[in-house]
Structures are given as C-alpha cells and as structure tokens.
Design brief:
Layout: H1 2-29, E1 34-38, E2 41-44, H2 45-66, H3 77-102, H4 106-114, H5 121-131, H6 135-158, H7 163-173, E3 176-178, E4 183-185, E5 190-192
Antiparallel strand pairs: 1-2, 1-3, 4-5
Length: 194
C-alpha cells in the first residue's frame, strides 16, 4: 500500500488540489461561505442574500402601498443590509439559547407553532407577493426564527426575565465577527462604515 502511494503521489496530490479547487468554486458560486460568525456559529452569505432580497422586495412593496408619491426619503441599501445582518445575528443568538433551554424538544415545539400556517393558500400567495419568497423559504427565514423567539420569551417569562433585556445582554456579550470591511458590529447592531 505504501508503495502505491509513493508511486502515484504526484497524481494524488494533483487530484486533491483539483478537488479542493472544485469544492471552493462550488462554495463560492453558491454563496455557502460565511459572511459573519456569531460566537463561532457561521452565517452564510447565501442566507444573508436571500433575506436581503426578501427585505428589499418587502420594503419596495411597502413604499408603493404607504407612500405612492415617494415623499419619504429612501432607505439606503447598505442600511437594509445592516438591518438584515443584525436580524440574522439576533436569530443566531436566540437559536443557540432556545436550543440550550429546550434541547431535543425544539423541533417539535417550532413545528407546532409554524405548522398551522402551511395549509393556508391565501397566506402563501400573500407571502409570495409581499416578500418575493416561496412559502418554504418564508417559513425558514421568518416563521421559524419568530417561533424560536416566542419559545425563548416564554421560557424567560417563567424566570421573570424579559426577552428584550436578555437579547440586549446577549448581543453585548456575543463575539461577532463580520467578514466585510463595509460593516462593523457595535455591540447592539451592525452599522455601515468603519
């Protein structure tokens, strides 16, 4: 066996380099690389861009509905990006905390809260119109994080603590690394610029 590796070593090294290159291309083209780390938990660029697109569609629809004349100053795209990234960081903190609190019951508790919306055809059409998302994507991007937040709020209520205070403390003590020089974490939210 050792002789085989010795004889074909250059070919094996070349094959490994090619495999790593293809894996890198796949990760980059699908936006699977991390855009941020929250206490060593990655937030993928793919998830960020999906949430950003839906936030942008929602914002544009809201402006058409509530400000058809365009009298309200427009929100800059980097402000929307910062808001989306802040929300993803908060979702990550909540997910980690609620997972610790309820353990293996989390999936069933979330399914119980979210499951009732899956059969509502009118809601599914509204989601596609307002957010530009399929209902399945809306469920994972919006409904599941909100269900986890509700579950955590309930657990905190039992120990006489409020979610807002807990979240503020969690954000201040979190180790957040953003892999973009366009944004920084200030201990409460993502802000544009340096």
């Amino acid at each position: 066996m050792t002789e085989f590796f010795r004889e074909y070593r250059p070919y094996l090294v070349f094959a490994a380099i090619v495999a790593v290159g293809f894996a890198g291309l796949y990760l980059a083209s699908g936006h699977y690389y991390p855009i941020a780390l929250v206490d060593q938990t990655p937030i993928s660029a793919r998830r960020f861009w999906e949430n950003y697109r839906s936030a942008l569609v929602y914002y544009e629809n809201a402006m058409k509905t509530y400000d058809p004349q365009g009298t309200t100053p427009a929100v800059r795209p980097d402000e929307i990006e910062a808001g989306v990234l802040t929300q993803l960081i908060e979702d990550s903190l909540v997910h980690k905390a609620v997972s610790r609190e309820v353990g293996g019951e989390l999936d069933s508790l979330v399914a119980n809260k979210v499951g009732k919306y899956g059969s509502d055809a009118q809601l599914q059409r509204a989601v596609e119109t307002l957010y530009g998302l399929s209902f399945r994507d809306f469920e994972s991007a919006i409904l599941v994080p909100q269900a986890e937040k509700d579950i955590l709020a309930g657990r905190l209520f039992l120990i006489n603590e409020q979610l807002e205070i807990w979240l503020k403390n969690a954000k201040q003590s979190a180790r957040v690394i953003i892999f973009s020089s366009r944004f920084r974490w200030d201990g409460e939210r993502v802000v544009a610029g340096t």
